[in-house]
Every structure is written in C-alpha cells, then in structure tokens.
Amino acid sequence: MTRKRTIGRSAIVALILGVLVGSAPGIAYAAVYSPYITWSSSPYAYKGRSGVNGGSGVYAIGQVAKNASGTVPAGYMGAGAYLYKQNSNGTTFALCKSATVTYTTAATSLYNRFTSGSCGSGNYRGLGLLYTYNANDGLYNVHGANNSPAQGGS
Amino acid sequence: MRSRRIVIGVLLTAGLAVGGLAIGTIASAAVMQSTPPVASSSTDDGRLQPQEYPKNASGQTYGSAFGATWETIPDLVLVITDQGGEGFVPREAVFVPPAESPDAALGVSARSEQIDATDSDGKTVVGTYTLDPGTSSQE
Question: Which of A105, A126, B8, B127 could bond to B83 as cystine, CB 3.0-4.6 Å?
C-alpha cells in the first residue's frame, strides 16, 4: 500500500516536472528568408535575400552570393542589414537597427551581414541591401532584396 | 522498483511531450497571429513597390523606408530612436552610398556613430539613433 502511494506520488511529481520542463521557454527560432532575387553585375551573376531570426535576440540578415560555383574577388560584394519593427498601430514598420554596408575582404562566394540588438518585443522584418561591383562601368549596383517574412521577437 | 522507474519514465516523457506540444501550439498560434498586415508599400509576397511620400516645409520627403526601393527611399527615414520613440534620420546616414571601388571597399568598416533623430520637419531634434556595428560572415 505504502509502495503504491509512493509510486503514485512520484508519478505525479514526474508528470508535473515533465510539463514544466517541456513548457520552459526556449523556443528555437530559425531564420526565415525572402525569396531570392537575382541580377548580374558584369562579369558575375548574383543572388540575394533578406532574413530575420525571431525570438529573443531577434536580428536581420542581408545575404548576397555568387549565383554559381566559384568565388568573386575581395570587395566585389557587400551587404547592409536592416531590422524593421512594426509600429504600435500596425500601419507600418519603422527602422529599428541599421547595420550599414560592409564588404567582403577576401575572395568569397557568399556574404552575410547581421544586425544586433532589438527595439523591444514586437513583430519584426529584415531587409538586406546588397552591393555588387560591376567591372563594366566601374560602379556598384545596389539592390534591395525582398522583405523577409515577419517574425515575433524581442 | 523497476515498475516504479518505468512509470516515472513514461510520465516524465508524457509530461515533456504535453508541455512541449502546448508551448509549440501557443507559439505557432502567436506567430500566425503576429504576422502583420503587409504594409501598403509592399505586395503580399514582399516584392518592393514604389510609394508616395509626404513632404515637409523644406521639400524633403519623409516616411518609413520599409518597402521602398533604393531609388524611392525618402529623404528622411522613420526610425525607432534610442529613447524608444519615433523620429527621422537622413537617408544617407543609414542607407549608405556604395564605395567607389573594390579597393576602397576594403577600407570600409562597420559604422556605429550616434546621429540626431528629428521630427518630420528635419530640424527639431527628438532623440538619437545609433547605427548598429552588426556582424558579418563570408564563405
């Protein structure tokens, strides 16, 4: 009888413990991205997208990559990342964090730029501003990727 | 003793599953509910659309840069200030023009300066906005 009671009590404690541990915050967020855009800056073809990683420590991602195998020379690709937060009445998004453009420092095939920090709890979207060097005219082409989907974050 | 361990193990697992499922459901519902209505400047799939901006007395356009293209970013961009309110900063301060060459690009470093945020008049300072040095990675 005593043993049955002990088992029952332990079982209840285990169940409660399980629910508590299973309910603990720590929801894993994965970055969500916009569809790629593609373009050419002679002599290379590129692709790029925006991302946002929600949850605690939300951040935006600007990503630019060579749209084929191989690398491009240092300084040919750059990206800025911008984190937008929806305003309180839900009518628009204001710029929360701006990680302005920096460029690759070595021959590379992909470059990511990330923001850090947030503007409190809310709905966020990321935007990548992507810079690629066009050897034909000696200028950079600047492309805004599509906005990322929204994610809750703080 | 063995059956006790089995019971505890099963219930612990069940508890974890129930708890995780509950939170997962709540989180997923929250994310779905939190998906905002897409701003008028952007289509449902996030493609960028040109938009009209109001002008202040100095003839500067102002508003949210969200959904704008490089060409249509307003002169004064809506930001959340360091103090938590809303303000505007010049577009060049946050949407930086490109480097002049790949060699010059190698000398570009992450910016982290603090700039004044103003009212939509572009003059009345309402707070500050600090650029985010951020981080980067290359492969």
Answer: B127
